[in-house]
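Protein: DUF4012 domain-containing protein
Species: Microbacterium nanhaiense
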Amino acid sequence: MQNSVAPGPASTGAAPQPAVKKRKRRARAITWTIVGVFVFCLAVMGVSAFVAKSAVDTLMAEAKALATDIDDSAKTEKHVDEMVSAASRAHWATAHPVWRATEVLPVVGDDLRAVRLLARTADSLVSDVAAPLLEFDLSSIGPTDGALNVDAVAELGKKIEEVAPAAQDAQIRLIADGIETDSLLGPLQGPVAQVEDVLGTAADVLRRLAVLSPQLATMLGADEPRNYLVLAQNTAEMRSLGGNPGSLLMLTVDNGRMEITHSASEQDLNSGRAEPITPLNPWTEALYTDRVGRYIQDTTMTPDFAQTAALARAFWGETLGDPGDAVLAIDPVVLSYMLKATGPVQLPTGEKLTSDNVVKQVLNEVYVRYPGTAPTDRAAQDLFFAEAAGAVFGKLTSSSSGFAGLITQLVKGYEEGRILYAPTNEVEAKAVSGTRFGGPLTVQSNDENTTLGVFVNDNTEGKLDYYTDMSVKASSNVCSVGDADDKTFTVEATYNFNLKPEDVATLPYYVSTARYFPKGQKSTNLVFYGPVGSTYVSAKIDGQDFVPQAGTNDLGRQAVLINFLSDPASTHKIEVTFSAPPANYGPIDVRTTPMIKGVPVNVESPGCG
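Structure follows.
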């Protein structure tokens, strides 16, 4: 009898049906396609990132080399070509569809987008702004035969007018793109913020220069001689803007040729008058007393250079005639910067001034050389100041050094607040409005930067600030409290009086007159300014509560004055706190008096990144 077999499923050893095979092949193909695309994208992104990084490194290296070789037209052209090529490569490497597609990824998408936008901006700036500007041969400006070439300056002005709109467009596009810096990875936040700041500064400077460009040749006396009243600030006797402007010069520029045509001191002016020469702002008088308008030496006590310039013009005009077309203020540190570019100068008295010794010669050695109180010694001091400044200005148009190197040094002086400028011409005034040419506190808003101020005014009658230096620390809770909470801003100044006690007896009379304080002792007024719209909270000296001697609202800000005495080889810490209402506050920026030594500033804003 045969065994029966019940019907059931096919044996497991049976071959798969054709449809199953087809589905598996399709799945494998899709899988490998996805893997292939992913690997391709990774390869593209890897190559792109490498190309972009390499291009940016080249761009930065060439820009640094350009700063050194700016006076050599052949080297400049080579550097510019390399920069244009590098910026283009960085843009190309980050602008393709694969890069854009990865911008949707979580975590890194925003960072990739930021890199692409910055590469595009760099390409635009280098190709449309920097390259056309640097095509201009700066050496054509001169000096040649003792004068700057005013026609070349006019040509440069036209070139600036042509490229300024491109910088503006690049800035507007980047703002419109809306990079959220706070959402980026840590290593990118700093560079992105730096690029945005540089772009903003470049666009603003070019815009202002474009406004000024029709006047550039005129400012160099192309049409008729141009006269500048120069305040030579003595930073051995500090004032808010830099120093005692006891030496004044009339600088005449005629068709590019510079000459000091008149020099004066406070003895040639009606300084020490019973009433201010022009009415003072009441808040200025409240902080600094009416001395600001009664003594030419005190006109720079206020950080408002427009007011200083008006007072200086009035003092000069009262006794010496036409005060010129503009007021310019400089200090011996600026002279040292200029001498770095031009080389040393020889004075008629035999002294050789260099970038290394001019500060010491002008601010200290002159009083050792002419130590007496006789009119002849005082006249010799004033003559030395005038001859030193005159020799440096004369060197500007007789030096064989390139013009570009001088511009670099002047920009440094401007950024440190050592060059101030107040023109009477409306076009020039518009171009410099709101810049540091008008003083350290010209901006009346906290939106872009929250500016605080610490300014030094000597109260001793002497030149003891040659032996001082200062550092500043600022802190705020602006990023660590709620949006609806008041903000606090604290500024601490560490003030060092470095005079050695054993040197007091040998100090010349004009360094320490000992008329109001014992010889070698120093009286100092520090004036602290809070942010726009702030109010004063408290003050301390060396950790002890202190009541300021004066306080008011100046330049839209709460300001207080604190006086203290310093013995030789002593240090004081002065701390002032301000409060400000809820609002948008930009990064903290501390402005100080430009002292002989730079003033280090440390800012602490917990939670601000």
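Remarks: Residues 226-428 form a domain with the Aminopeptidase fold (CATH 3.40.630).
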